[in-house]
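Table S2 (text version). Query chain:
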Amino acid sequence: MIWNAASSHKVSQLVLEQPPSPHVSKRVVVHFPGFEPLDRALHHARYKRTAEKTARLWDFPIEVGGLHANGRNGFFDVRSGAKGDTETRIYVLEHDRLVRQLSDRPVSVRLVQGFRSAVRVALEGAAMAYFRHAWRFGLFFVFPFLLVTLALIASLTIASIPFWLALEIWYYPFGLLLGHSFFFRLFLPWSNRLHTLHLFSDWELAVAVARLGQVPSVSGLESAVTHWLDECVEFMRAALKEEADEYVITSHSMGTSMAAHALGILLAREPEMFGKKRVVFVTLGSAILQCATFGNANALRNRVGLIAQSREISWLDVQCLSDAVNFYKCPVVTLCGFPDAPQPKIIFIRLKNMLSAERYSRIRYDFLRIHRQYVLASDKRVAFDFTLLTAGPDPASSHAGRG
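Corresponding structure-token output:
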């Protein structure tokens, strides 16, 4: 790849006139992905593709190393700069096994448990909070359950046609078979393109994450999440013990609630570990309020407050108007009950400015694809870039004034 000093300067300054930032020689990143059926190998492959595109876009050398297994999770190293003088180690704390635990069950179980989760969301007051603070997220909550409810009504209507037509009783099994076929053979395969059952599972996990640390585990899922979270805390502790100029905890979507839990637990147990360290907590398309607005999510809210009040941690919250699956312009720390605590520095991004017109037009109506853009490469040189945030020469905290 051809490299020149002018392009490197553009990367470092991101075409913005800002005070010079201290160069980062060594960085450790702990990344909590969102609710996706991707294991560590697939997350590594995605990051590598994204970094290669960023490198071409900015004419800036970035080399992503191979994936190394580390227990259930993994890490890989990234070198960037003309001389490879910025080294980054990225730990990926994915929860693919939780996603697969939910998605590998029979369809009937997923439907029943999904509707039970929706009822809990409503009873805990979270649904009302969604519409009060981010009405588009409220619609995101309602969408899969309303769609499946309408499909079930249509299936029952089809199944009851022989009754309404006063046909002989031996026609009734044919009506039931037709209704069953409509729902399971026609509707469910079609609804896969809208990620309907995936969203049912997402809400199951949201209920479990909201209950963490507050009440004893009452389900196998909650026990599995608790065990997974304990592992994450240990991985994060080990990562923070490595020598580095800065430590960046990045999280996306559902992973933001997971990261807040893990970081809050470690901060409460070993606050001295954060002393004299430059730690940056980055939430991308944050869904913390998806869980923190539950009435019983006291532990999560307290951990959010603990992170916000820590002098050793800088918090960047990246938000996007085009993304319906985030709480746009919502003060997450205030809404968690800490209005006097320092609030996260919000970085606003515009997808129209990041993507080509053709690409934006192709994905604009796929809300989950829009939601993934935070961790993917741009088509244009803009101030925010996930690869440069996690592996570039400037400190992650210096991105606070960009967007």
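Notes on Table S2: The first strand starts at residue 26 and ends at 32. Residues 89 and 254 are 23 Å apart (CA to CA).
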